[in-house]
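Box 3.1 A note on notation
Throughout this textbook, protein chains are presented in two layers. The first layer is the amino acid sequence; the second is a token string describing backbone geometry. Keep the layers aligned when reading.
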Amino acid sequence: MNVRVTPSPNPESCPALVLNADYRPLSYYPLSLWSWQDTIKAVFMDRVNIVAEYDQYVHSPSFQMKLPSVVSLKDYVSHERRPAFTRFNVFLRDKFSCQYCGAKSDLTFDHIVPRSLGGKTTWQNVVTACAPCNLRKANKLPSVCGMHPATTPVRPNMHMLHENGRAFPPNYLHESWMDFLYWDSELEP
């Protein structure tokens, strides 16, 4: 199908907010967004319901429709699965702050029990650390260097990561999305 977008010169400025079948976002951070192309494909494959639309249209020689701004999945996606152990998910679990000094920049991750001393790369042994704290701790145990994480590291579930992500609203929120996003009251745009 030959599809073009009008009147907007930049269809990339029209992503769709993706909601689960229960009308909650699939994720808050990163916010669950699909490109206009992926959204249109999901509409034609009958995988989503259109909840809200932009004023812009896509059309082919024989078809025209408004670009969806909010869609909901027809089938519920369970959040009961365990999150993957990734650098991003460790940072999100630790709310993007150094667990030793609270810094929010120059983040790395640190093995509480250093690998050189037998420490494993697990949820319970890795925390977010800024580069200066990571260098200062080096390959020492917390009891030796006096550096203890602010919180005990745990294996997060998807709900925990989802809730932590709500503390980081994106820079851009389309007005049609606002009825479906629930940020902490002091962070609302």
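The beta strands are 4-6, 16-19, 33-34, 48-60, 63-73, 107-111, 126-130. DSSP finds five helices and seven strands in the chain.
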